[in-house]
Amino acid sequence: MTCQESGGGKSPRELAKACNEGRMVKLWVGLLTTLTILVGHGEASACKPELDGYVQNLAQGRPTFQSSVYSHPIVGLASNAVDGSCNGDWYAKSCIHTNNDLEPWWYVDLGDRYGIGAVVMKNRGDCCGERLDGAQVYVGNDIADPKSNFYCGPITDTSLGSVNTISCYGYEGQYVFIIIPGRQEYLHICEVEVFGIKGCPMR
Q1: How far apart are the two ends of the chain, measured CA to CA in Å?
Q2: Is residue 10 part of a domain?
Q3: Strand ranges for 22-149 from DSSP E
Q4: Residue 110's domain spans which residues?
Q5: Which of 122, 150, 168, 171 could form a cystine bridge with 190, CB 3.0-4.6 A?
Q6: Where are the beta strands (DSSP E) in 21-157?
């Protein structure tokens, strides 16, 4: 049953309120389930099939973009971060890698607007994890100025092979960005997963 079908004579304001409350309950149940499993096992959920049926990884297989592609026999394409593999070894050919860009960036287009509960990011495991120091996660709808979108939080664990889980508090958006601000750096990420739900239309 959709939110519109369950109105039961409610005014538009009451319907929007009930719709939002139901959306947030579902979002936080899914988010808490995700966080419990992630904290307990310390690995990206693509490796955790028990998440099936609880939350959906909205990013897997979606279109992705990055500021540049590092020139190397192993091609660090943007799409590598949403290929469903949480292997942190660069030589497994499943990580993205930019050039030494000023404020390098990567983003995924989810195809529609979702209330985003959490973003999970797998760091490179074989080398240079500290390059992600200070990287920031944003969610929103403005691709022209990514930092004008909602700021979810920073990457705090840059150890080799680390998995960072950043809460976005249900903020709604179509795009999820990872940016290293304020310096020239290589950006490499080995998997990004985005968890959330489709929001109810507001009238």
Answers
A1: 18
A2: no
A3: 64-66, 96-97, 101-102, 105-122, 136-140
A4: 25-198
A5: 122
A6: 64-66, 96-97, 101-102, 105-122, 136-140, 150-154
Q: 14 lies in a domain? A: no
Domain-embedded: residue 11: no
| 164-185 mean pLDDT | 94
Sign of CA dihedral 86, 89, 91, 95: positive
**Is 91 within 8 Å of 46 (Cβ atoms)?**
no
Residues 87-105: what's their mean pLDDT? 93
pLDDT of residue 73: 81
Paired tokens of 95? 């990580």
Q: How confident is the model at residue 2 (pLDDT cuts 50, 70, 90)?
A: very low
Q: What mean pLDDT do residues 67-81 have?
A: 91
Look up the CATH number of the domain holding residue 90: 2.60.120.260
* 5 located within any domain: no
Q: Give the position of tokens 């999970």.
A: 120
CA–CA separation, 103 and 109 (whole Å): 20
Structural domains in the chain (count): 1
Between the alpha carbon of residue 11 and those of residues 16, 49, 120, the distances in Å are: 9, 41, 38
Task: List the structure tokens of 173.
Answer: 């958006």
Taking alpha carbons only, the member of 183, 180, 181, 135 closest to residue 158 is 135
The pTM of the whole model exceeds 0.70:
yes
